[in-house]
Amino acid sequence: MHLPFCSNTLRCSMSVRVRFAPSPTGFLHIGGLRTALYNYLFARHHGGRFILRIEDTDRTRYVPGSVEDILESLRWAGIEPDESPVHGGDFGPYVQSQRTEIYRQHAQLLLERGTAYYAFDTPEELERMRQRQQAAGIAPHYDRSSMRNQFTLGPEETKRLLEAGEAATIRLKVPLHGEVKFHDLIRGTIVVPCKDIDDQVLLKSDGFPTYHLANVVDDHLMQITHVIRGEEWLPSTAKHVLLYEAFGWETPQFAHLPLLLNPDRSKLSKRHGDVAVRDYIAKGYFPEAIVNFIALLGWNPSSDRELYTLDELISAFSLERVNKAGAVFDLAKLDWMNAQYLKQRVQRDLQGLVASVRPLLEERGWSASDEYIGRVIVLVHERIHRLPELVEFADYMFTAPHYDEALFRTTWDDTSEELLVELSTLLAAIEPFTAHALQERLNAFAKERNIPFRRIGSLLRLAITGKSVGPGMMDTMALLGKDVVLDRIRNFLEWTRTLPHQHIKEHNPQQLPQHE
RNA sequence: GGUCCCAUCGACUAAUGGUUAGGUCACCACCCUUUCAAGGUGGCGGUACGGGUUCGAAUCCCGUUGGGACUACCA
Q1: CATH number for the domain that contains residue A384
Q2: Hey, which residues of A are catalytic here?
């Protein structure tokens, strides 16, 4: 195993520790899963540890059940943390709301070092400040020299307000001049002038830290070596670097991942479709397909291959090969990939697929033996992308077909009834009722009558399945069984007699079958 | 508006100064075929633009344009 990151860091002797740090504000986002995946791949590739930390410092946005969903989604994808609120570890607690005292102490430390300060402005005062700045045409930022903070108020008044229990925040004292420079493993050197960095609130008036403080303190305390996160964090990284400096800590390596995009190239959002991992699970995508697909969104091992197992991704992964530009989340390719894994699963784990299909049938009040379900899966799997499509695509394998008058009129002509009756008689005599026997007898019949075989196929398909597309009819009939087949033809003929017959087409051998 | 990031076929990407700019999805055609798929073969299609540097630029530099993210006592 090689360690390419060693070439530009002094951390060779130190083992890799990375973290995925989602907020419990709802279902795990597919973009979050990719961030987690890249962290996981990086950790495993280097024999390091992957940590899950819950960033719940905003109590107002907390959604119950989120943590469970995050854990379940990761587990579903095969991404198991080494340390987390449920897996434990030596650096806990792994939930930020349980670490408030740690943050408070660290904010205090910054206060003592003079790199942070108290501010007493109310939300309304801050809002007015921004409006003034906007009106004056300058960028909104906290104006340390005119607002109500320990500098403008003086030490005595500050002390008095604090003792009076006035709501206070602690802000980072960003240098007025100079610049912050840091290195990003994916983007190279990034420089931000200090004048463009705001005096970020570190500790809110409710005593909770903001993301910025909690994130830096925890990454340091948990000995995180590489911060691998979404590109949306790039602009605030300068603040974080300033914080590390304020504490006198060494910064971790940074790697900001390209965003996952909507088809219009905006940040992937709910407005354009499903974004929760949960949604993709419900739609029947396989974890290996989702993992494979999102791994290749923003990273590529430079090979002509498209299909990779998790283990193969682990051994091939490197941050050096992560792209800079955002990647559109393309459902069409995901569907293709899922279909590839469907075929693989049919080969390797048909029973598992049967177990997944059974509840889908039961939802509709249908049932069948494991063997029968398995044979239906084998029959139709190349025609669907996701398993749940099966119950729609091949509903007639489990229940009486639904006949559609419009489809009927495109296929049916004034000789069809007679032909179908004849076919029915012929089928009744076939024994054993196997695909092979059916093929032979119907072939012979077609030849003898000089009827194109496809005409027989489409007629039987219409009568027996109610559709115009599907798996081969010989296999379909053999699986359905003779009784069902004859029964359906009988029912179908009965149904056709309930329809007004005056508009039936005349037989035209030239154009009859749709495919010429 | 400001700051930062980004820019190869419609989408995902390969090519890290020398290739007829390659592959996958999608799309189109053909083959296979009882239909639809799957599979096979072929095709369509791209270095945003303008300047440099160089014998040579998709690749390095500058600018333009375009897109995105961020700009909270949210993460």
Answers
A1: 1.10.1160.10
A2: 270
Q: Name the residue closest to the C1' of B25 by its CA.
A: A333
* Closest nucleotide to the alpha carbon of A321, via C1': B16
Query: Which residues span the domain enclosing A13?
Result: 4-95+212-261
- Measured in angstroms, what separates residue A197's CA from nucleotide B3's C1'? 8
Distance in angstroms (rounded) separating the CA atoms of residues A106 and A329 = 40
CB A411 within 8 A of CB A468: yes
Asked if A332 CB < 7 A from strand B, the reply is yes
Reported ipTM: the value is 0.95
In a domain, A22, yes or no: yes
The nucleotide whose C1' lies nearest the CA of A121 is: B73
pLDDT tens-digit readout, A217-236:
999 999 999 999 999 999 99
Instruction: Check if residue A204 sits with its Cβ under 7 angstroms from strand B.
Output: yes
* CA A513 / C1′ B35 distance in Å: 10
And the tokens for A356? 């997944």
Cα dihedral angle (A221, A222, A227, A230), rounded to 10 degrees? -100
Classify residue A487: in a domain, yes or no. yes
Decide: CB of A347 under 7 A of nucleic strand B. no
C-alpha dihedral sign at A173, A177, A178, A180: positive
Helix A435-449 × helix A453-465 angle, to 10°? 130
DSSP A506: P
Which residue, among A415, A412, A391, A414, has the nearest Cα to A403 in the 3D structure? A412
Its pTM stands at 0.93
pLDDT in tens, A147-183: 999 999 999 999 999 999 999 999 999 999 999 999 9
d(CA A163, CA A159): 6
Nearest CA to the C1' of B13 belongs to which residue?
A300
Judgement on whether residues A50 and A75 belong to the same structural domain of the protein: yes
Please give the single-letter amino acid code of residue A99.
R
Between CA A52 and CA A68 the distance in angstroms is 12
DSSP per residue, A60-113: GG--TTHHHHHHHHHHHHT---SBBTTTB-TT---BGGG-HHHHHHHHHHHHHH
CATH of the domain at A25: 3.40.50.620
- Name the nucleotide with the smallest C1'–CA separation from A168: B73
